[in-house]
Amino acid sequence: MSGGNCPETPRQKMIGMMYLMLTAMLALNVSGDLLNAFTLVDKSIRSQIASTDDKLGTTYANFDAKTAENEARFKPKYDQALAVKAKADSLYNFIQDFKKHMTAIADGVPEETADPAALVNTSDQDKAGQVMVVQNWRGGAKALREAINTFREDMINLVKSDSVLNMDTVQMNSQIHALQAMLNTDDPPRGKDGEQKTWAAQNFEHLPLAATFGLLSAIQSNVRNAETDVVNSLYKSIDAASFKFNKLEALVIPEAQYVIQGGTYKADIMLAAYDETMVPEVVVDNNKLEVVDGRGKYSVPASSIGKKQFSAMLSVPDPVTGKPKYYPAKAEYEVGAPSLVVSATKMNAMYRGLPNPIEVSVAGVSPSDLQVSASGGSLTRDGSGYVVRPSGANKINISVTSNAGGKTQNFGSKEFRVYDVPNPEVKFVVAGSPLGMGKPLSKGKVGQAEVQAVLENFVFDVKFEVKEFTVGTVKNGFEVSQKNSGPKLQKATADLIKSVSRKGKIFIEGVKAVGPDGKIRPLNGVSVTIEN
Questions:
Q1: Which alpha helices (H) appear in 122-168, and where do they start and end?
Q2: pTM, whole model, 2 decimals?
Q3: Among 88, 152, 327, 426, which is least packed, fewest CB within 10 Å?
Q4: SS3 assignment, position 64
């Protein structure tokens, strides 16, 4: 089952032997034993088709999985493979329809339930010729021959497209010869008596159905084999194409383009299209660099401040001549003086008793290599930043050093002024609403009242707790007062307020509250008018 210079595969040799067996049998009288032999040959070919279908299923499953992982790379070839599958399925089913129709008219069963594998009248020598040549059911042998030829040419045209399969000439010719041999529909050579038979007569006239089914199954097998060869070539061509490139570009990849004085500039110099079989030679300032995984390792001390430039030359053997091909590369970087950045997240000041967040960075130095300390307070790490708690001093200093690569560097310090948190404002609050500034109080809501200390419009969200206050008023010309513990009105304080006449005033005085620093602060009071 091969043509030209195409070597036969074991699978094709087996199919060829089956054809020879059929030809020999057809030259003899069709006895019961020979009919059984035809049936066994057909069964063997169908078994081979089932095995081929299993392997094809695995190939399509692999294609589908790879496409899901990398759609851009695999989908174009997968779409072409699915197109091949659709054409192969169409031809295979077309042949199967002929077998079902022959089974139906030979065994006298409905076509929708006819099973070619269970054919009863295997010895019938008329039905094949009747269907394929005389009646030309669904176009008969002519339509089948044209369908096989169309499928063969479609597969050959796909193989000839080097952009699709990335084949060399030898591979391409070999696969084309295989397709031509497997799907050959030429008329047979003239016999010794000079008679010229057609392809249709050879396959369908005066043959028992058992033999015709074996020949049709062989064509179906060759359709699946052609599909397998082309789809496998499509799958393999993806990896083959990934190793081909037509442009080489030299790249310099620095670890950083800004280097602090005393640090080290490092860069990778490589070819953009890298092939592990081609190790480039990389030279900078007449010094050959160490090459690791196709990358020249370049390292130079950053001893002075300013912009720096360098040139590199990369060379690789030409794949055709073997002589070196050269690719120049240029790069620049800047060496700067050490610069320290310490910023207060809230503002350029710090407050006693509060966790003051700060961020610390030094250009060209990894944050993990920095050591940060505070003078005049405590400092702790908090995620990617730090928290500073000033002590009693009026100033605090943040100092930064590093110990990268075993070398200690001092980046200096920054000073912040330290302030006390401002005093809050006293508010007489009823049912969540502050009173005062002339807003009256209803005696019926005295039970919902409390005194609060609120710090508004401050950079931090600071809470104060009222510890005590005094409620005072004037009754019958005399000053009367009642001390209260905590922010909520106690019974005695509430009774005093309820005893004040309409339009009378009460005075909240002697307010003491505690803030985040733990110190008790005396606060200014507030007056409230009684409504009724």
A1: 127-129, 140-160, 162-165
A2: 0.46
A3: 327
A4: helix
